[in-house]
Specification:
The protein has 363 residues and is mainly alpha-helical. The protein is built from 13 helices and no strands. One of its GO terms (molecular function) is cholesterol binding. It is found in: Cell projection, Microvillus membrane.
Length: 363
């Protein structure tokens, strides 16, 4: 446009205007030469991006892709249920994908309980029967148990008989009497009677002796009466307990005999019962462990949610990033190709008003 002048004839146009017209025609020539490459690029990217987006992304989001994969006979000779050893044929790709999204375990997703029976594989009842049969055949023999030997029995009996106290009858009779052979009070009274008959000097001495005897009797009654009573009670207690010593010894020996007979008769059964109770407790431990192992294997081992997340991430990367960019590329390039035709027409029409002409056209 800088080289155009309205007053100049077309045969006298400047070099700048002529170069602009030549560039218009050169652009038209390049468009005719290379436009087929542009069209081919648009076609290829459209076929790849558009069809892949429709076949993969849309069918994935609408679950039609899984329905197609679940179609029987899609792949000749391939059957997922038979491959997993299932008779009912209930396993399919859509169901597996749904369970993986719910973070199901591999055991539940593949329905492995139909091909592998954990109850039969981890059933210990068969071994329990064998253990019971083997345990019933066990014969427990123990060495004879002797709580007391015959010598020990005789020794206890002799000790109970020898432990009888002597006869305390004479001793008790003596204890019932006074501590002194005669009565001190009577002796004091006799001294006082003699004092009344004696002279003055002897009278005072006899009365003093009588008073001393009375004080001695009082002191003896105070100091010895409690001790004598305690001694009597102890003697009576020894006599009463000594009478029961032999009977108690015989009762203990009888209980020892019964205990020994019970041990000889029931010890083997007691040991056998306690051993079986211990075995049952061990079997309960094994059953608890097996139950825990089955629950962990069927519910926790090999959860497949990461697999579903991986497939979702692949779909997002492929569809939202790669295919969307590719489709945007061919869509933009296609519009460039569409606008190429009017640009060629426009360039040809404009070149007439820019190029220097050989013959002036007055019209």
């Amino acid at each position: 446009p800088l080289g155009l002048k309205e007053s100049v004839l077309p045969t006298q146009r400047s070099c700048l205007s002529n170069a602009g017209g030549n560039f218009f025609m050169a652009g038209v020539g390049f468009s005719f030469i290379f436009s087929w490459l542009l069209m081919l690029l648009v076609l290829i990217t459209f076929v790849l991006g558009g069809n892949t987006y429709v076949l993969l992304c849309k069918s994935w989001r609408s679950q039609q892709l899984f329905q197609l994969l679940d179609t029987p006979g899609l792949i000749p000779g391939f059957n997922l249920s038979e491959l997993l050893g299932q008779e009912g044929g209930t396993t399919n790709f859509s169901e597996m994908y749904r369970q993986c999204q719910q973070d199901a375990a591999l055991w539940q997703m593949l329905h492995l309980d139909q091909s592998v029976s954990l109850d039969e594989l981890l059933n210990i009842s068969q071994y329990t029967g064998e253990i019971s049969t083997a345990f019933e055949k066990v014969n427990i023999t123990l060495s004879p148990i002797s709580l007391l030997s015959q010598d020990q029995r005789d020794l206890l009996l002799n000790a109970s008989r020898a432990g009888q106290p002597p006869n305390f009858t004479l001793t008790l009779e003596q204890l019932d009497q006074n501590v002194t052979q005669g009565s001190l009070l009577d002796l004091a009274a006799e001294l006082e009677q003699l004092a009344n008959k004696a002279d003055v000097d002897m009278k005072d001495k006899l009365k003093a002796d009588a008073h001393s005897l009375r004080e001695l009797d009082k002191e003896m009654q105070t100091n010895f009466s409690g001790l004598l009573q305690s001694l009597k009670e102890n003697i009576h207690s020894v006599q009463s307990r000594a009478d029961l010593l032999e009977e108690q010894t015989k009762s203990v020996l009888d209980k020892a005999n019964k205990t020994q007979e019970f041990l000889e008769r029931e010890t083997a059964n007691i040991i056998k019962n306690e051993t079986w109770a211990f075995l049952e407790e061990l079997l309960d431990f094994f059953e608890t462990y097996i139950s825990w192992a089955k629950s962990r294997l069927t519910e926790d081992v090999a959860r497949c949610k990461p697999l579903a997340q991986t497939l979702d991430n692949v779909e997002v990367i492929t569809c939202d990033y790669i295919l969307d960019s590719l489709n945007a590329f061919w869509f933009s390039l296609g519009w460039c190709t569409v606008f190429l035709l009017p640009s060629i027409i426009l360039a040809v029409r404009l070149a007439k008003f820019y190029r220097r002409m050989d013959i002036a056209d007055v019209y």
